[in-house]
Design brief:
The chain is an alpha/beta fold and 306 residues long. The protein contains ten helices and 14 strands. It folds into two domains: 16-219, P-loop containing nucleotide triphosphate hydrolases (Rossmann fold, 3-Layer(aba) Sandwich), CATH 3.40.50.300; 233-305. Helices cover 33% and strands 28% of the residues. InterPro entries: AAA+_ATPase, ABC_transporter-like_ATP-bd, ABC_transporter-like_CS, P-loop_NTPase.
Length: 306
């Protein structure tokens, strides 16, 4: 590789895989994306988490140019994404929530047909995944279950060796055992060097298995983006207890969530904020209460913040 090509490759790895600024999208007068900003670093696996109806699918479709924006700017792999076209599409893999294309085709014919559109196609990977996921090349797509169709969609998305892989609820249609086994195969493929993955789901245990960075979509914006290890290290539920209990949880500046549970005051807090520990201790002293800190799993955090 020449010096210019090496420098170009280095610059590309420094660019975010995806950058979105002030995205606005409405349906029937209801704003779904509200001046949303988001940046996804290259080479990361990012879990997009949000309640049903939060707009995860809408956001992903807008990011890939599949749904028009009302306003805002998007760059994907260093280029403006105004519509899906050009050589960049060879570098993007996408798995939608449902896969209903070409029901009359057999699996093998569908994959052969699809391969003709891509510069890169990993036939060995295709054969391995078809075998591991028990997808018969001779079977018609119409005869597949919804879960099997999703598996086929993922095979199609992975085969061109994309630099950006976007998965929209890829395993929601599988039962828990099948989902666990499926992710065990998928995770190493998602974590290949230099690849970026956006994994949308509302199933928090899937993101914990993937060890993804977490991006929380709430009220039309990315409300939180942190590595999962960072969330585990710093987010806690703080309990205040005292004799006679509380009739109302005292206010705590900086708390992410406040609740009253069986006369105990409960707060979700981020201990990465250096002010939080002293504020909790001062509040406990002022209220004549004892303070306990408990770890939060991702589901607890999601329920508190979503």
């Amino acid at each position: 590789m020449g010096i210019d090509a090496t420098l170009a490759a280095a610059r590309e790895t420094e660019l975010p895989a995806l950058s979105a600024h002030a995205l606005l999208k409405s349906f029937d007068g209801r704003e779904v994306l509200k001046r949303l900003d988001w940046e996804v670093p290259a080479g990361r696996v990012v879990g997009l988490l949000g309640c049903n109806g939060a707009g995860k699918t809408t956001l992903l479709r807008c990011l890939l140019g599949l749904s028009p924006l009302d306003a805002g700017n998007i760059e994907v792999l260093g280029e403006p994404m105004d519509e899906p076209r050009g050589q960049r599409l060879h570098r993007i893999g996408y798995v939608p929530q449902s896969f209903d294309l070409f029901p009359w085709m057999r699996i093998g014919d569908f994959l052969t047909f699809t391969a003709a559109f891509y510069k890169r196609w990993d036939s060995a990977l295709v054969e391995r995944l078809l075998g591991e996921w028990q997808l018969d090349r001779k079977k018609k797509i119409a005869a597949l279950s919804q879960g099997q169709r999703q598996m086929l969609a993922i095979v199609r998305a992975l085969a061109p060796d994309p630099d950006l892989l976007v998965l929209d609820e890829p395993v929601a249609s599988l039962d828990p055992i099948a989902r666990r086994d499926f992710l065990a195969t998928l995770i190493p493929l998602m974590r290949r060097p230099g690849k970026t993955v956006i994994f949308s789901t509302h199933i928090t245990t899937d993101l914990e298995r993937v060890e993804a960075d977490i991006a929380l979509l709430r009220s039309g914006r990315i409300a939180l983006q942190r590595p999962l290890a960072d969330l585990r290290a710093h987010f806690r539920r703080a309990w205040l207890s005292r004799e006679g209990g509380f009739s109302m949880a005292p206010a705590l500046d900086g708390a992410l969530d406040v609740d009253l549970v069986e006369a105990r005051a409960a707060y979700v807090v981020d201990l990465a904020d250096v002010r939080m520990q002293p504020a909790l201790k001062a509040l406990a002293a002022r209220e004549g209460a004892t303070l306990e800190l408990a770890a939060l799993d991702l589901e607890d955090l999601f329920v508190a913040l979503a």
